[in-house]
Amino acid sequence: MLLGHLRDERRLRGTKEGCAEGDCGACMVVIAELTSDETSVVYRAVNSCILPLPAITNRLVLTVEDLDDGENGLHPVQKALVECHGSQCGFCTPGFVMSLYALYLNHDVYPGRPSVNEALSGNLCRCTGYLPIFEAAERMYAYPRCARDPEVDAARLRDMQQKTAVQKPQAAYDAAAQPKTIAEVCKILSKDNDARIVAGATDLGLEATKDLKSWSRTIHLDDVRELQQITQTAQGLSIGASCVLSEVFPLMAKTYPELSDYFYRFASLSIRNRATLGGNIANGSPIGDSMPVLLALDADLEIARTAGRRVMALSDFYLGYRKLALKPAELLTRILVPPRPEDLFLRAYKISKRREDDISAVAMVIALTLKDGIVESARVAFGGLAEMPRRAKGAETILEGHAFGRETVNEAVASIEREFSPISDHRASASYRLRVAGNLLRRALAEFEGNPITQTTQLNCEVAL
Ligand SMILES: Cc1cc2nc3c(=O)[nH]c(=O)nc-3n(C[C@H](O)[C@H](O)[C@H](O)COP(=O)(O)OP(=O)(O)OC[C@H]3O[C@@H](n4cnc5c(N)ncnc54)[C@H](O)[C@@H]3O)c2cc1C
Ligand code: FES
Ligand code: FES
Question: Residue 464 has what pLDDT?
Fold first, then answer.
């Protein structure tokens, strides 16, 4: 992983190791890379503890040491943290500095508290408390600006690309292959069935750092530009499997603003900066958060192999616990989301113990299309209720053809209780999961009827329980 390389080989010890699983942010660095059309540069804070080294090919890695230019002393981010008393033991501080530095590079002026919250959603501090750090995030904009020149970085990145193309023509069969096209990926897969596809590595990285797994061959998708493109047409959205969630979610939220809060609840910004939509789907976790959304929106998947491509419904993709309808040597290439239907009622809820950077106990997404008050089509999709992300087909049938009201919802809740037998684990008990699933459907009804559940109502419910 990049963290080990920085600390042990480059002796750059400003970047710390806290958890080695993408949770604490002590290892945060900023990666500068060209956009998929290669016209400009994008700066992203990422967790170096789960970032495989091949992923930095043709990228600039900025660590906390880069902020010391030897002339001006402290960078505004660091100066602000000092002046606002934003550090005590200091262990988390370089990570906070780098997350704030990414924010600083991406915004010329103070972008406001919501953006700061998002920028720091992957950083934990055990001793300072967050208020001084939030103050510093505002204060850093009060000093003379000291940012990088994106034009210069873009030129440097293009130059790097040309040089590596000459030095390392095509190492397709390396132990860590870095192909450039879908065809090349399929070719490697067809020759070596055991080769492991690596996208953002926010799942696979943990298998390496926590389960100490290793693979005889890995195929890194970072340089396959075809997989990083998003197009929006009259047919809907076509999202490349390797598009990172920090790009995909804001774009989808333009068409589906109802999903904004749900998207914000997916991991942290630094994880979303690496995690890909294809990786979330292909990882096949029953508590993966994008699948309930995509199931409710009737998304399809495009899958490639050497012989060609095929398209299948996401709802047919999961066959059991982490069992996918992906055949050997196949690669997930695109996610196809149909256009937004008229008269759509859409809600998405994630139940987890923390607001930021936590895994779902239960997630539910409901999408209803209505005509004259009657539900024409219903999609209710859950995470955390079964061995795979799944639609509640019985409940959907009950809702279709009726007004969305209390009586039908009660019947649908009863159907969910018959359809699903969730497990109990450290996140939630089976009975909690089932109860919450039914309550989320009732919550959707309350919002449909214009009675949104506010935080106060929630607190009152908790007190009553
Ligand atoms: C701190 C932390 C918080 C997290 N929070 C959440 C959360 O809130 N919600 C959530 O759902 N997940 C969460 N995750 C899990 C993870 O971030 C997501 O599942 C992510 O989308 C995985 O994408 P990736 O690109 O990193 O996949 P990778 O780790 O690279 O790959 C995952 C799997 O998919 C396969 N794969 C990847 N791309 C393809 C492809 N194109 N074709 C075929 N197979 C492919 C890989 O071989 C591997 O088996 C979290 C992870 C961490 C570390
Ligand atoms: S060491 Fe904790 S996120 Fe990397
Ligand atoms: S200053 Fe000690 S953990 Fe943040």
Answer: 41
